[in-house]
Amino acid sequence: MDRTLTAPAQLQSSLPRTSWYLRLFAIVTQWQRNARTRHQLAKLDPRALADVGISPSERYQELEKPFWR
């Protein structure tokens, strides 16, 4: 699974207002990361979920979120 240390809000607030295209690129990149990591989460079997400390209900809640959240 991918792990990131930056939050999208922090990235967006650090960019100047004139670089709207960079903000848009950052947002789309975050959406792609959300979709990719949720796809990886969906593929995990119950044993792998237990190894990372995620319950089946937590997994279900995460998978129900839209890619932009």
List the helices and strands and how they pair.
Elements: H1 8-14, H2 20-43, H3 46-52, H4 56-64
Structure description:
The radius of gyration is 15 Å and the shape is elongated. It has helices at residues 8-14, 20-43, 46-52, 56-64. The model has no long low-confidence stretch (mean pLDDT 84). It is 68% helix and 0% strand. The protein is an all-alpha fold and 69 residues long. The two termini are 18 Å apart.
Features:
69 residues; 68% helix; 4 helices; elongated; single chain; mainly alpha
Summarize the structure.
The chain has helices at about 10-15, 20-45, 45-50, 55-65. The chain is mostly helical and about 70 residues long.
Shape, please? elongated
Helix-strand string: HHHH
The proportion of residues in beta strands is under 5%
Q: Count the strands?
A: 0
Residue runs with pLDDT of under 50 for 5 or more positions: none
Average pLDDT works out at 84
Instruction: Return the structural class.
Output: mainly alpha
Helical content class: 55-70%
Give the distance, in angstroms, between the N- and C-terminal Cα atoms: 18 Å
Number of helices: 4
Q: Largest sheet at a glance?
A: none
Computed CA radius of gyration, to the nearest angstrom: 15 Å
